[in-house]
Amino acid sequence: MNVIDSIVTQAAGIAAVRRDIHAHPELCFEEVRTADVVAQKLTEWGIPIHRGLGKTGVVGIVKGRDGGASGRAIGLRADMDALPMQEFNTFAHASQHHGKMHACGHDGHTAMLLAAAQHFAKHRNFDGTVYLIFQPAEEGGGGARVMIEDGLLEQFPMQAVFGMHNWPGMKMGQFAVSPGPVMASSNEFKITIHGKGGHAAMPHTGIDPVPIACQMVQAFQTIISRNKKPVDAGVISVTMIHTGEATNVVPDSCELQGTVRTFTLEVLDMIEARMKQVAEHTCAAHEATCDFEFVRNYPPTVNSAAEADFARKVMASIVGEANVLVQEPTMGAEDFAFMLQARPGAYCFIANGDGGHRDLGHGGGPCTLHNPSYDFNDDLIPLGATYWVRLAEEWLAQARD
Ligand SMILES: [Zn+2]
Ligand SMILES: [Zn+2]
Predict the structure, then answer these.
(1) Which ligand is the nearest neighbour of the Cα of 108?
(2) Which ligand is in closest contact with the Cα of 107?
(3) DSSP secondary structure letters along 318-380
(4) In the list 68, 113, 186, 247, which could disulfide-bond 333, CB 3.0-4.6 Å?
């Protein structure tokens, strides 16, 4: 592996910062302490910072040899927030905040970008500007969207933006990147069926919302199997059905909620329209009515072809072609999608390894993201930081021509 020596030398110090952040997890838009740690480190290394985009966001501004005169700029993004869940780990850096945990490795993402920042500040081996984007609220809060709404791309004009997520189970030293959609759009729906309650022994006197809900759930799946092109990806999951309080009462109403995932906005438009039609017409067929609510949370995360290809070459120069995998798209979602809607770029995975780094006590082996026994693998810090450094240096050099 072709990692940068000086980053390896500094890695232990950065790992200590990572463990400190892990021990003090903060949720969406509450990353005050984490942002303080980031701001303090960047300032210590002589990097000017801007704070407050997306409430707790921090942007570090590193000018290259030319003082940024070329006007070329690249954005590198790390997320900082934790999850509202209880950690099972008992190691020294386990969460000190009850019910909060860095189970998605955003502590590590922050640390890898800090390690790169330290190197950038010292060497400035590029022309143009590197913007280090430390973003709040990836886990459902849409921190990327809020930073953009707060003026991220106007205040810090950049021609491309890149993101990275650790991926448990992939072998240490591997990366994965692909052009096109890599994560799905994430959307929520809530349908309230209005029937007519009554005595369960005399159902003909009411309008029972329960069989209507059952038909609706089945009919939604025919949107996936009959309305969507088979080669397009799409998921409808009804995950909550709430109704009724007694065995002898026909309920008055029934609420269905769930999620819809797609890789394109065209498929999403179709699914939303068809779900509304199916919901309303199923109700009409049974003399009921419904309220149909559909909320679009995150758009699909779509890598631009040129930037994904560029990232792949940089990765290959560090870990070799054989260790740069095809990024298999997942129907999970990621708010970096908003940045990729606004600028070309690529979102990639870096292997978190086979789980050997985790302390024993909760079983060895790989541990999925969002699992209470998860921990970020500190061995990634020099590798992830090397990728950030080489990517920015080479991208800025290329863009100058
Ligand atoms: Zn997560
Ligand atoms: Zn995450």
Answers:
(1) 2
(2) 2
(3) HH-GGGEE----BS---THHHHHHHS-EEEEEEE--SSTTSPTTS--S---TT-TT----TTH
(4) 186
Expressed in angstroms and rounded, the spacing between residue 73 Cα and the centre of ligand 1 is 28
Q: For residue 83, how far is its CA from the centre of ligand 1 (angstroms)?
A: 7
Listed by start position, the domains of the chain span 5-183+300-400, 186-298
Give ion ligand 1 contacts, CB < 5 A. Answer: 104
Q: How far is the CA of 165 from the centre of ligand 2 (A)?
A: 6
70-110, pLDDT tens digit by residue?
A: 999 999 999 999 999 999 998 999 999 999 999 999 999 99
Vertex 248: Cα angle to 243 and 253 (nearest 5): 25
The rounded mean pLDDT for the chain is: 95
Cα of 138 from ligand 2 centre, angstroms: 7
The model's pTM: 0.91
CATH, range 5-183+300-400: 3.40.630.10
**Cβ 166 vs Cβ 376: under 8 Å:** yes
pLDDT digits (tens, 9 = 90+) for 108-124: 999 999 999 999 999 99
Please provide the CATH number assigned to the domain covering 186-298. 3.30.70.360
Residue 354 has a pLDDT of 79
- How far, in Å, is the centroid of ligand 2 from the Cα of 289? 39
Question: What is the model's pLDDT at position 355?
Answer: 77
Total Cβ atoms within 10 A of residue 45: 16
pLDDT along the chain (401 residues), means of 10: 94 98 98 98 98 98 94 97 94 96 98 98 96 96 97 98 95 96 97 98 97 98 98 97 97 98 97 98 98 97 98 98 95 96 98 77 69 93 98 87 49
Distance from the alpha carbon of residue 370 to the mean position of ligand 2, in angstroms: 8
